[in-house]
Amino acid sequence: MRFETYGLIVGAALVLYVADSAGRRHLGSRQVLAACLLAIFAITLVPAQGPRQPQLRPGEASPVGDVANLVLFAPLGAVLFLRRRRPGRAVLAACALSVSIELLQRVIPGRTTSLDDVISNTLGALAGYLLARALWSRPG
Q1: Other residues' Cβ atoms within 10 Å of the Cβ of residue 64
Q2: Which of 1, 4, 98, 127 would suit a FRET pair with 89, their CA atoms being 20 to 30 Å apart?
Q3: Which domain does 83 fall in, by range?
Q4: Residue 52 placed within a domain
Q5: Per-residue 3-state assignment (H helix, E strand, C coil) for the chain
Q6: Rounded to a whole number, what is the distance in angstroms from the first to the last CA of the chain?
Q7: Is the Cβ–Cβ distance between 74 and 15 less than 8 Å?
Q8: Which residue has the higher pLDDT, 7 or 57?
Q9: In this structure, is residue 8 part of a structural domain?
Q10: pLDDT of residue 26
């Protein structure tokens, strides 16, 4: 399986996990946040087989990889909403995490530093935040 496939599978599982946990309120948001971060680190910071050259122009990355990054970071955005973070701070935190990951990938064999990844990760967290707000801010 390719990295993008793993990202989509784990990201989808995390989305379901966050939805289930928030709906039942049986897990604290701290545990769900830890699970999200662990999955993100496990997928993005392990050595891989690939080019090590930076991709610093938007549009250079694979569309499948962009979707995988959106899905992978969406649960993080949802958890930040559940932890009552303001939208600006949530997006800034996701962006800072993504930039940190991309910088670390410069020294990890087979990983590619990509501006597209930062953009899609941040947008994924924003989408997760907005989706969580739409789902859990409704009265009744």
Answers
A1: 14
A2: 4
A3: 3-45+60-136
A4: no
A5: CCHHHHHHHHHHHHHHHHHHHHHHCCCCHHHHHHHHHHHHHHHHCCCCCCCCCCECCCCCCCHHHHHHHHHHHHHHHHHHHHCCCCHHHHHHHHHHHHHHHHHHHCCCCCCCCEHHHHHHHHHHHHHHHHHHHHHHCCCC
A6: 43
A7: yes
A8: 57
A9: yes
A10: 46
Quick check: is 130 in a domain?
Answer: yes
What's the total number of domains in the chain?
A: 1
Structure tokens given for 15: 């989305």
Of residues 35 and 137, which shows the higher confidence score? 35
Asked, for residue 50, whether it belongs to a domain, the answer is no
Give pLDDT tens digits for 116-128: 999 999 999 999 9
Return the amino acid letter for 4.
Answer: E
Residue 140 has pLDDT above 90, yes or no: no
